[in-house]
Design goal:
Layout lengths: L8 E5 L10 H16 L3 E5 L15 E3 L5 H11 L3 E3 L4 H13 L2 H4 L3 E2 L4 H8 L1 H10 L7 E4 L2 H11 L3 E5 L9 E3 L2 H14 L5 E5 L5 E9 L5 E9 L12 E3 L6 H18 L4 E9 L6 E7 L4 H10 L3 H9 L26 E7 L20 E7 L2 H10 L17 H8 L6 H10 L4 H8 L3 H19 L5 H9 L4 H8 L3 H11 L4 E4 L13 E5 L12 E6 L10 H16 L3 E6 L14 E4 L4 H12 L3 E6 L4 H13 L4 E2 L3 H8 L1 H11 L6 E4 L2 H11 L3 E5 L9 E3 L2 H11 L11 E5 L5 E9 L4 E12 L9 E3 L6 H18 L3 E10 L2 E8 L6 H8 L3 H9 L4 H7 L16 E7 L25 E7 L2 H13 L7 E5 L5 H13 L3 E4 L1 H9 L5 E2 L15 H6 L5 E4 L7 H13 L3 E3 L2 H11 L11 H9 L1
Parallel strand pairs: 1-2, 1-4, 2-3, 4-5, 18-21, 19-20, 19-22, 20-21, 22-23, 35-36, 35-38, 36-37, 38-39
Antiparallel strand pairs: 6-9, 7-8, 7-9, 10-11, 10-13, 11-12, 12-15, 13-14, 15-16, 17-18, 24-27, 25-26, 25-27, 28-29, 28-31, 29-30, 30-33, 31-32, 33-34
Helix pairs in contact: 1-10, 1-11, 5-6, 7-8, 13-14, 14-16, 15-16, 16-17, 18-19, 20-29, 23-24, 24-27, 25-26, 31-36, 32-36
Length: about 1100
């Protein structure tokens, strides 16, 4: 069937902000879809609230709307743009739910718009638990015994039939939110209550337990002519009970018999037909009882899913791209395979290598969180590796995580085999290493299989790695053959060195003396049956390299590795822009990255892609391979966050040219003494500070400066380990808590700064070529200093800063850029306190705000930075039109205002007792993603940012107020305005007394901890749990009164109510409440750009 000619314009719905369970994989799939649709001549209208993704760059769609993904906004865009169809299957659960709402409210019918990719009926059949269960049974397959509950009382009754433990799965949620195993009635009530709250349809599925069964997935595609292909089979190393996003997974499935696989394939094809997914991809999850081989179907996603990105990168089969073409009416056999150029998309991929994906967790950001893994997803990112066997791929994947303790080791182990086996029973982020240590200590494969449910084949492979390590350690002489054997099983130079008691550099030199280096194989989708046209490579210690030599001038771009809090897709955005800009400038671009979720690891983003760990060993081997022919101009380390920067010194020492700011200049900004000299020479001031390597030294500095102090480790990203410390006891506690993470020591001193209370923080992104400074944007933080810039709302242009302050800030940035020796991007953070401008820090690299600045002001900073690093000047780029003539230091009054708001994952993390972790913000970053509101005025832009991040602010209802003494004066005006707008106010006794003196009527409520108070009735926490509170204003009080604040904030997060912990943000919110429109105003980035040009 040829392409449909009746579809000339398509509205693509994006996935919104990066959250746990719905991350950059949808950025990747949506970007692919937009590119394909435009190549097919279709006018693309995109709506997505996420500024960090490259998808929302104006070049990927004809009209790009960075707007909240709400029904009202979507209808406003539909009325304005009049698309022929909506494609909702590439934006995760967010897009699917948005499309369902449009259908249910009659908007699709009103505007005569078709859903393509999946019909409403197919979405409902795949997502509605009961309908899907019935379809599976009709298809001749099995499901777990189950019931649908819509109330807690119904759930109690169903539990009597199913017995404990039982599985809870809410409908229409993502990342397993609200799901889990209930072992008793108390857990059932809590989890069903959460599940009903999280499900848009207020229903949960209760299932018999299949805990410990083996779990598999099939990634499938089907076209309108009923051609169906299995793109990839995926197997979880962890058994059922751990969310697939939190499990180590392998592709292809390795422990299925051919008979089991064919049975699973037949079931999958029957289900995809029954559900009616006829123009796109889907993902079906299965469980297999290891005792008798019984197969049951767990669930289906009738859309491109999290696993689709993994399957695409694992096989080279571009699922999202083909899904977009199928949605336009093509058949699979009409779509050519890009990689081979001769096979069609109906040709199922075949793998002659093994792919391993490992999840990346962020428990260090939430130290009180339960590290146990369940069916609710907790990982924030993932790394993927390819190898010729499982052991090689597993070791490469583990070292790609860049986390201390994530790789296998053979150091002294104090715990016994029995203790380690017991520890391995509970799934945690470090269980795979615990299993390796238990086997090393003498535990048997059978014992560990019984304890963990992990298939004996995987355990035997881990035992094999231990055997190889023992041979390396015990060899009388380290021969070339022994090292080659270790390399074939994935051991790194660091691991081999530790086994022999020598350094990584010594092992590397030995290998190079022997000419023992990896070769690079190609991902070709067909196991070598046809030659590959796309250079997509992975390393292996084989005989023949498949890299075709190139004589062109080359630039290597280091990616940012797995997503994590503090280093997300904002850095991938910059890497992708660099690849596009340098390719257009005539360079051959070479990307190195290990993150399957990203656009940078798409096979056609760069001229060559190496899917490899971002370690010094692996990067040096790729540089050696690429230096064999042509001219290697250098390596760009400025764009990949701390991951890439951390490799700069080692690469330079190995003689590899670093493009842009030199490693020694980067050190000037990080090393406190050098940076202080630069500040002195520039006439700039920093808060009083000092450095220490231990508690005693830090205490001396803190007492000299005076508490409170801000403490932060060197060379970290995302404010890792950064805290405000109020007294000596807190400082001692801080050193105790960070001890296990090894982030402070002689090579990484702790920075101790005077904490600036009541200061306004300012963020600046700029570009410097050694002569001319180009300001990208000056951002004003809405929260006061002390909250990490990644978690703080900010506005561009600044709304309360005077022109003299902005001028002083820009002058300061130029002096710092010159003093440091920047060539490329620089981000500087300032604070204004009591009329004094302080420099907080300077980072000579891409920052996480680069995409936000680029979209807010229409300035392509990352693209320009790549060209500056390869020799262009700012003046040249302005003359060529790459940069606008007017930079971001002076924004016209007629320009729109953009507000960035952080999205926080607190509801994903609970303590072992089941309580949500505290939601208080501080100097350590905790947000997973961000949204942007753009509008003619600040209140409207802020209102949009709240709609996009949290579903908006209440327009009426009850507000609870309890603030610290220092905030009581500044809270009066916002509360008075809320009272005048008709909100009911309740407050704790002290706050109520203050408000009463200003004539503001409140109802007094008892604190959670006041059991013998004169105030009768329920506590504030009881009211929040009962749904009687619509907005909570609760500012923290240092170390005192934290018990009440903690309970209030966690109850508010669990109830999904508006929560304000700073007066500055409250003031912005109250101003935005004044702005209320029944029909939202929407405007595309392209239209804003036209306004700037006129």
């Amino acid at each position: 069937m040829p392409k449909r000619i009746d579809i000339t314009s398509v509205l693509v719905i994006g996935s919104g902000p990066i959250v746990i369970g719905q991350a950059a994989e949808f950025d990747y799939s949506g970007t692919q879809a937009c590119r394909v649709l435009r190549e097919e001549g279709v006018r693309v209208i995109l709506v997505n609230s996420n500024p960090a993704t490259i998808m929302t760059d104006p070049g990927f769609a004809d009209q790009t709307y960075i707007e909240p993904i709400t029904t009202a906004v979507l209808e406003a865009i539909i009325a304005k743009e009049k698309p022929d169809a909506i494609l909702p299957t590439l934006g995760g659960q967010t897009a699917l739910n948005a499309a369902m709402a449009l259908h249910q409210e009659g908007i699709l019918e009103k505007y005569d718009i078709e859903l393509i990719g999946a019909s409403f009926e197919a979405i409902q059949r795949g997502e509605d638990r009961q309908i899907f269960k019935d379809l599976v049974l009709e298809s001749g397959a099995e499901v777990a015994r189950s019931h649908i509950a819509r109330t807690i009382e119904e759930a109690r009754n169903f539990a009597k039939d199913l017995g404990y433990p039982l599985v809870i799965r809410p409908s229409y949620t993502m990342g397993g939110l609200g799901s889990g195993f209930a072992h008793n009635e108390a857990e059932l009530e809590r989890m069903v209550g959460d599940g009903l709250h999280n499900s848009p349809t207020t229903e949960v599925l209760l299932e018999e337990s299949i805990l410990g069964w083996k779990e598999y997935e099939l990634e499938m595609m089907r076209d309108g002519a009923d051609n169906t292909v299995v793109v990839c089979s995926i197997e979880n190393v962890d058994p059922v009970g751990v969310h697939t996003g939190d499990s180590i997974t392998v592709a292809p499935a390795l422990t299925l018999t051919d008979r089991e696989y064919q049975r699973m394939r037949d079931i999958g094809i029957a289900i995809i037909r029954a559900v009616g997914v006829d123009t796109g991809g889907c993902n079906i999850q299965f469980a297999v009882d290891p005792s008798d081989g019984r197969i049951i179907v767990i669930e289906m996603n009738p859309r491109v899913s999290r696993s689709s990105a993994l399957a695409s990168k694992a096989t080279g089969f571009p699922i999202a791209k083909i899904a977009a073409k199928l949605a336009l009416g093509y058949r699979l056999d009409e779509i050519p395979n890009d990689i081979t150029g001769v096979t069609p998309a109906s040709f199922e991929p075949t793998l002659d290598y093994v792919v391993v994906k490992v999840p990346r967790f962020a428990f260090e950001k939430f130290p009180l969180a339960d590290r146990g893994l369940t069916t609710t997803m907790k990982s924030v990112g993932e790394a993927m590796a390819l190898g010729r066997n499982f052991t090689q791929a597993l070791n490469k994947a583990l070292r790609s995580l860049e986390q201390r303790g994530s790789s296998f080791h053979w150091e002294q182990q104090p715990a016994s085999a029995a203790e380690l086996v017991k520890s391995a029973m509970m799934p945690t982020d470090g269980r795979i290493v615990t299993v390796q240590q238990a086997l090393r200590q003498g535990a048997s494969v059978e014992e560990l299989h019984t304890a963990t449910g992990i298939d004996p084949w995987f355990l035997d492979q881990i035992q094999l790695i231990n055997t190889v390590a023992a041979e390396v350690a015990e060899a009388s002489d380290l021969s070339k053959e022994i090292v080659a054997y270790a390399k074939q099983h994935g051991l790194s130079d660091i691991q081999i060195g530790s086994l022999r008691g020598v350094t990584e550099a010594e092992i590397r030199q030995l290998r190079h003396d022997w000419d023992l280096r990896p070769v690079f194989k190609t991902v070709d989708t067909c196991a070598g049956e046809f030659p590959a046209l796309t250079p997509y490579h992975y390393s292996s210690y084989d005989q023949v390299s498949e890299v075709v030599p190139s004589g062109r001038k080359k630039v290597v771009i280091l990616g940012s590795g797995p997503n994590r809090i503090g280093q997300g897709i904002e850095f991938d955005y910059s890497c992708v822009h660099a690849a596009f800009a340098l390719r257009d400038a005539g360079f051959e671009t070479i990307m190195i990255n290990c993150n399957p979720e990203t656009v940078s690891t798409d096979y056609d983003t760069s001229d060559r892609l190496y899917f490899e760990p971002l370690t010094l060993e692996d990067v040096l081997e790729i540089v050696h391979q690429e230096s064999a022919a042509g001219e290697l101009l250098g390596v760009i380390v400025q764009l990949g966050g701390q991951t890439a920067l951390g490799l700069a010194e080692g690469l330079e020492a190995a003689g590899v040219p670093i493009l842009g700011t030199t490693p020694s200049a980067i050190d000037l900004a990080e090393e406190r003494g050098s940076f202080a000299r630069i500040l002195d020479e520039a006439g700039l001031v920093a808060p009083r500070n000092g450095t220490a390597i231990d508690y005693a030294g830090a205490l001396v500095i803190a007492e000299d400066i005076g508490f409170p102090v801000l403490v932060r480790p060197s060379y970290v990203l995302g404010g890792r380990g950064m805290e405000i410390v109020y007294d000596q006891a807190s400082l001692e506690d801080y050193f105790h808590r960070i001890g296990d993470f090894a982030i402070v020591g002689p090579q990484a001193p702790l920075l101790v700064d005077r904490f600036l209370d009541d200061a306004v923080e300012i963020d600046v992104d700029a570009l410097f070529d050694g002569d001319t400074l180009y300001i990208g944007g000056v951002m004003e933080h809405i929260e006061e200093a002390g909250i990490h810039s990644g978690d703080s709302s900010c506005t561009l242009p600044p709304v309360t800063l005077g022109r003299d302050v902005v001028a002083a800030v820009c002058d300061g940035v130029e002096k710092l850029a010159r003093g440091i020796g920047v060539r490329g991007l620089i981000n500087v953070q300032f604070a204004v306190a009591a009329g004094v401008l302080y420099v907080l820090e300077a980072n000579p690299r891409a920052s996480r705000t680069v995409p936000f600045v680029s979209k807010a002001l229409g300035i392509q900073l990352a693209r320009a930075a790549a060209l500056v690093m390869t020799g262009s000047t700012v003046k040249q780029l302005v003359a060529e039109g790459v940069l606008p003539e007017r930079d971001g230091r002076s924004v016209p009054a007629s320009s729109p205002v953009s507000v960035k708001e952080a999205v926080l994952p607190f509801k994903r993390f609970r303590t072992p007792a089941g309580d949500i972790v505290d939601s208080i913000l501080g100097p350590e970053m905790r947000s997973t993603g961000e949204v942007m509101g753009i509008a003619p005025s600040f209140p409207e832009a802020f209102s949009k940012s709240q709609d996009a991040a949290y579903g908006g602010l209440p327009k009426s209802g009850t507000v609870f107020v309890s603030v610290a003494d220092r905030d009581k004066r500044s809270v009066i005006l916002p509360i008075l305005r809320l009272s005048q707008m008709g909100f009911d106010l309740i407050a704790t006794e002290g706050t109520a007394e203050t408000l009463g003196r200003y004539g503001i009527a409140t109802t007094v409520i008892r604190k959670h901890t006041e059991t013998d108070s004169d105030t009768e009735g329920p506590s504030i926490v009881d009211l929040i749990h009962a749904g009687a509170i619509d907005m909570v204003i609760n500012t923290p009080r240092g170390r005192s009164a934290r018990a009440d604040g903690y309970e209030i904030r966690t109850a508010t997060v669990a109830a999904d109510k508006a929560l304000f912990t700073t007066i500055a943000q409250l003031g912005a919110a109250v101003a935005s409440l004044e702005f209320s429109s029944v029909v939202p105003s929407v405007k595309s980035l392209q239209d804003y750009a036209k306004d700037r040009e006129s």
